[in-house]
TrEMBL record:
Superkingdom of the source species: Eukaryota
Family: Belongs to the WD repeat MORG1 family.
Name used for this protein in its record: WD repeat domain-containing protein 83
Lineage of origin: Eukaryota, Metazoa, Chordata, Craniata, Vertebrata
InterPro entries linked: WD40/YVTN_repeat-like_dom_sf, WD40_PAC1, WD40_repeat_CS, WD40_repeat_dom_sf, WD40_rpt, WD_repeat_MORG1
Length: 322
């Protein structure tokens, strides 16, 4: 009796370049997967926001309405709405299908660095260089924010929302976690301007990157440092970091043209992904699969764990079956 061969383990890291998209919107300031990972959003320095198919690399729609470069964007859970923010101090809520501006939200005193929907897409949260986070009701007739969080002593560079918690990173070197249900604020001090913050998928940890070229993993409830990840270069740019979809790896952009990928537990560098010769501006990890988006200059790259079958390969397989 012969035992079946053990299944080979699926590669955990997105090390194969699947396609490059020339976005033709100036420098791409941010790239983001949508909620299910089938589409991507690219934010351009030419004031446009673009929606693309990830699998085909084709442009589906262009959203025009900002007066200056677009810095961040997010898609709602049901893919019906987008929100984006810009150096023009505004946040825009878009209708995905028509491409029309549903709301233009004004109130920030300076450029808006980051924006995100809450889980139900009933609230948009935006963080600005003016040091505030503003919460906007997407369904209200009123155009005023429903809440303003002004605890930061300097610009808010990054924010993430997860259920009833809001995580913000600021140039003042502090990570703030707001428990919106309990009305509590938890502050962790990192002695360097913060460029990006994230929650881990299990909700137990927070990930922070800062301008001392270090990514740190903190225990969310105690603030204890669980891991430090170094080797990349982040000295003068606001660059992204993230966790892989299964929380196994930590990833960061770098000014040396690579994406660095570390083992979360070991802290060892597992992959140094050569994207190009310029600064890797932004990255986004697929919500469930081993896929990665990177942005450099005017292009977006899509990376996967294994090379994709081309249509010719599929035809050959079908002929063999026939």
């Amino acid at each position: 009796m012969s035992f079946p061969q053990p299944k080979p383990e699926v590669p955990q890291l997105p090390q194969n370049l699947l396609r490059t998209i020339d976005c033709q919107q100036g420098a791409v300031r941010a790239v983001r997967f949508n909620a299910d990972g089938n589409y991507l959003l690219s934010c351009g320095s030419d004031k446009s926001l673009k929606l693309w198919s990830v699998s085909r690399g084709t442009l589906l729609k262009t959203y025009s309405g900002h007066g200056y470069e677009v810095l961040d964007a997010d898609g709602s859970y049901d893919n019906s709405q987008l929100c984006s923010c810009s150096s023009d101090k505004t946040v825009i809520l878009w209708d995905v299908a028509t491409g029309q501006v549903t709301r233009k939200l004004r109130g920030h005193a300076g450029k808006v660095n980051c924006v995100q929907f809450n889980e139900e897409a009933t609230v948009i949260l935006s963080g600005s260089i003016d040091g505030t986070v503003r919460c906007w009701d997407t369904r209200s007739r009123k155009f005023d924010p429903i809440q303003i969080l002004d605890e930061a002593q300097d610009g808010v560079s990054s924010l993430k929302v997860s259920e009833h918690e809001l995580l913000t990173g600021s140039v003042d070197g502090r990570v703030r976690r707001y428990d919106l249900r309990m009305g509590q604020l938890h502050v962790d001090f990192i002695n360097s301007p913060i460029t990006c913050v994230c929650f881990s998928a299990d909700g137990q940890c927070t990930l922070t990157s800062s301008l001392d070229s270090t990514v740190r993993l903190l225990d969310k409830s105690t603030g204890e440092m669980l891991g430090e990840y170094t080797g990349h270069k982040m000295k003068g740019y606001k660059l992204d970091c993230c966790l892989s979809s299964k929380d196994t790896h930590v990833l960061s952009c770098s000014e040396d043209g690579h994406v660095y990928c570390w083992d979360l537990v070991e802290g060892s560098l597992m992959l140094k992904l050569p994207v190009g010769k310029a600064v890797v501006q932004s990255l986004s990890f697929h919500p469930s699969e081993t896929r990665l988006l990177t942005a450099m200059e005017g292009r977006v790259q899509v990376w996967g764990a294994e090379p994709e079958e081309t249509e010719e390969d599929v035809v050959v397989v079908q002929q063999e079956k026939a």
